[in-house]
Amino acid sequence: MLPLQDKDRSVVRVLLKSGCCSRCVLRFCCVGLQVPYRQPSKVLAQQLFDFAFPNDVNKCVPYIQEEKDPPFKKIKLEEPNNLNTGQDQNDTISLTVPEFICSNKDGENICVVCLGVLQDYSEKDFAAHISNEVKSAQFQFDNFVISVSLPAQLSVREYAMWLLVKQEVGNKGLYMGRDDVIQIKEVYKWIIHPIISEELGVPVDSKSCFEISVVFTHPETNGDCHFLALVCSDCFKPAKNKQSVFTRMAVIKALEKIKEEDFRKQYSCPPGFPVSKCLVEDIQCLHAPVYVAGRYNKYSRTLPQTPWVIDGERKMESSVEELISEHLLATFKADGFNFSSSGREDVDVRTLGNGRPFAVELQNPHRSSFTKEDIKRLQQTINNSSDKIRVRDLQIVTREAVSRMKEGEEEKTKSYSALIWTAKSIDKSDIEFINDIKELKINQKTPLRVLHRRPLAVRPRVIHTMRVEFADEHHFRLYLKTQAGTYIKEFIHGDFGRTKPNLSILMNTVTDILELDVESVDVDWPPAIED
Q1: Residue at a domain's end among 378, 406, 434
Q2: What CA–CA distance (Å, rounded) separates 101 from 86?
Q3: Concatenated DSSP letters for 117-166?
Q4: What's the structural domain count of the chain?
Q5: Would you call 517 a catalytic residue per the annotation?
Q6: H/E element holding 193?
Q7: What confidence tens digit (pLDDT) does each residue in 213-272 have?
Q8: d(Cα 146, Cα 200) in Å, to the nearest integer?
Q9: DSSP characters for 271-308?
Q10: For residues 159 and 111, what is the distance between their CA atoms, to the nearest angstrom?
């Protein structure tokens, strides 16, 4: 038995006569139970017909022969006209079963509202097709969720049918809001989810990281929506990256703005019969990104952190990013990646100590589940592939955890060691005063070497501590602990006075930097992993 009441009978008749498929009839009758929608469409159609015309069941007997045959005999029923068609009450109208009412010139039975989405595309055969597409994509997943993209015109057709049903309900002194209609997407998922779940052998989970996307299109979209652009032109703004101005959101915005009487003047209620049904443009499998974090050491002075390309020409054959990510891409079978780190070092700067924290976002990974031993072997593979870098503490983390890496960029500290050259001869006593300098405040105007990619500004920074080791009369090693974001090279040579004070001013001689190493990046992330 369908969960319908006597008050629904006239509404069902209106919907059947107008060309609604069985499932759309239930939607406009506000049936919120999932089970009725899951019945085969032919069975559901007969139940609705029996409900709408209980005294005429003998005139329409369902029969099923070949698959090509229609599910009902094509017969006419003479009913008093109480369907608000505008005819005299004594007139009669000819009614046939919905499947025949919706037939186009090719004999296809297409619903005037969902344009076929809740018909053939909701049956087992199409669900099996989706499942086969998913299997062939070879993703690893424990559960799934389906997303559905529908043509914008379905909102227009649904609005038109709602106005018709609203009028019929209103004749009984009742009210029906637009939100009372069960959405096509909702019903589609109710029907298709359990079938695909059985096919794939995994459960449905609304929070699943694995999404099966079904995209429907329809060639008549612009024709159905064009009048809205004339009435509500401010809702439709052309954009270069959009094939049509009639996006779903723009159409919904226009429908919220247009007055009901204006809509009726411009568009048929009920909507007219379509020439063709919706087409499936694409079935895609999408896995949410997986995030891998760790810390890296860089031992080369000729290796950039990221690919170094100037004027379209590559300057270095590889980078830290590539040496790490190429192995992650292959292992996770991902479509792409984004590399980020806690700061960066220049190409000629080494990163020593515990290394620099980094994270890699792996996009649409086909494989996502790994044991700790798997990740440990992956780390070893990266380390064995090159002597220029080394990775430690490699682990899978959450997206939220990655944000912690970027938190406190200005508050964290970094430690460096630098080999300094002095123009004048020095001895140990000339540099000992540097050991006593604490919390030195400096102002750094954007360095000349990065001015092409960073805005001009004066940035206050702090040198927390400094320590020196004498080498010879023109060289010494300087150890610094600084505020993150300090330009060390510019502090050493002064950058033509753009950093003040600087080491040249402090020592009253020209100084320059020969070598620079990052000794530590004081960020307690990601968590250390014992070997």
Answers
A1: 406
A2: 19
A3: TTTGGGSHHHHHHHHHHHHHHT---S-BEEEEE--THHHHHHHHHHHHHH
A4: 3
A5: no
A6: helix 184-200
A7: 999 999 887 888 989 988 888 888 876 666 678 888 889 999 999 999 999 999 999 999
A8: 13
A9: PPPPSS--EEEEEEEEE--EEEEEEEEE--SS--SS--
A10: 14
Choice among 205, 346, 348, 512 that is catalytic: 346
Same domain, 131 and 163: yes
Answer yes or no: do 423 and 320 share one domain.
no
Q: Are residues 82 and 199 in the same domain?
A: yes
Domain, as residue range, for 14: 6-286
Q: What is the dihedral of CA 61, 65, 69, 70, to 10 degrees?
A: 20
Q: Mark whether 319 and 255 lie in a shared domain.
A: no
Q: Quick check: is 477 in a domain?
A: yes
Q: Which of 188, 260, 248 is nearest to 224 (CA)?
A: 248
**How far apart are the C-alpha atoms of 380 and 213, rounded to whole Å?**
36
Answer yes or no: do 317 and 390 share one domain: yes
Q: Which amino acid is at 524?
A: D
Same domain, 425 and 464: yes
Alpha carbons 154 and 278: distance in angstroms, whole number: 10
- What is the tens place of the pLDDT at every residue in 483-507? 999 999 999 999 999 999 999 999 9
The pTM of this model reads: 0.81
pLDDT at position 56, please? 62
CA distances from 278 to 112, 205, 400 (A): 11, 27, 39
Entry field: residues in the chain: 531
